[in-house]
Amino acid sequence: MSQPASQPSVRKRLLASIHDVGPGSERQVEQLYGLLEARLGGPRFAMLVVPDHWGQHPLRANPAFQARLRGWADAGIEMFVHGWFHRDSATHSSGTAQFKARHMTAGEGEFLGLDEATALQRMRDGKALIEDITGRETAGFIAPAWLYGEGARSALAKAGFALAEDHWKVWNAATGNTLAKGPVITWASRSPMRTASSLAFAALARQTLPLTRTVRIAVHPGDVTKESLLSSIDRTLRRFAASHTPSKYAEIQ
Length: 253
Known about the structure:
Blueprint: E1 13-21, H1 26-40, E2 46-49, E3 52-53, E4 57-58, H2 63-74, E5 78-81, H3 95-103, H4 116-134, E6 140-141, H5 150-156, E7 163-165, E8 169-172, E9 178-181, E10 184-185, H6 192-208, E11 214-219, H7 227-243, E12 245-246
Parallel strand pairs: 1-2, 1-11, 1-12, 2-5, 5-6, 6-7, 10-11
Antiparallel strand pairs: 3-4, 7-8, 8-9
């Protein structure tokens, strides 16, 4: 009796990223770059670039950091637009938005309360700036703190980005089609309680997510301030680099 044809194995991917990249975080980004490069076998991760973090670190006015960004892009790093200011200065009228702004981020959900026109302008300006600096098309747009209001979601379909991401999925920014599902593993440094919670989640993820087709890991400049976070990040990268192929976001399209 003939045996049934074997099914092709599903390739499991690891998508890693450094958030909040800009002139004000250069030292921390360099440290995280070294860690991710070592654990993933090369520059197989993305950077999320903030054009003017909190209005204090304008990328446009820093040629030296522009050169660093261009060098990283030339090495193969994918560049995402990560808001414009990162800071949330909107007044939120709905209870849901107020809750997210208060409990899911420390005043950094920039795109949670923007109207469509403002969100679209900032998206397009960020895309143009980063593409001009790197000479390459941006990989996509990821809102600060992964928080999108209705205006931002409407703007995404018009801004010309290939990809977008939130806490739970990656999707085609133009069509809305979901490309990958599952929680992103990230860490928090702004309070002892949040740090402890993020360490616990990362430990749980190392046990429960190995069978997941796509695993996402996101690190932030503030993570370098606590040795416990760096140790957890290292263990998590090692764990998933052993079971998932470090990949580019573009490969899941």
